[in-house]
Write a structure and sequence with these properties.
By secondary structure, the chain is of the alpha+beta class. It has 2 helices and 9 strands. It has one domain. It starts with a helix and ends with a strand.
Length: 140
């Protein structure tokens, strides 16, 4: 009987140690410090643009951010439930982007505002799905 209790206790301790070691991945420092616009999905940049080589669209009525090339053949778009206003704020987002000539999408994402720049640039992070996005809202 004592042996069963010790085995059970050891199993519980091992499980607790395993759960406590689970790493919560945050937004990569490289992206958080980036001056470019990009979309990262599961640790892979699927869209990346320098400011001089892209179009940045913000539709206030739809609460939509879009970043893409001049022809909008390569882009990513985030439609939010509200316009981000402060670091730490959480947004519900529907995301779409082009990849290898086809449109990908994910709905019902929850992004956290990681940073807002003085130039209107906004860094967003969805920890559950491992998605980072940099968008821009014009500064008034």
């Amino acid at each position: 009987m004592m042996r069963k209790i010790l085995y059970s206790l050891a199993a519980c301790l091992a499980l607790a140690a395993l759960v406590s070691c689970e790493e919560t991945r945050g937004m990569d420092a490289e992206i958080l410090n980036s001056e470019d616009y990009m979309l990262e999905v599961n640790g892979r940049i699927v869209q990346g643009f320098t400011e001089s080589q892209c179009q940045m669209i913000f539709n206030a009525a739809r609460k939509e951010f879009c970043v893409g090339d001049d022809k909008m053949t390569e882009y990513y778009s985030l439609v939010c439930n509200k316009v981000p206003a402060a670091k730490g704020e959480t947004l519900n987002v529907n995301l779409s982007w082009t990849m290898s000539g086809s449109v990908q999408s994910r709905e019902g994402l929850r992004f956290t505002v990681e940073k807002i720049g003085d130039d209107g640039r906004i860094w967003l992070w969805d920890a559950k799905d491992g998605i980072a996005a940099i968008v821009c809202k014009p500064v008034n």
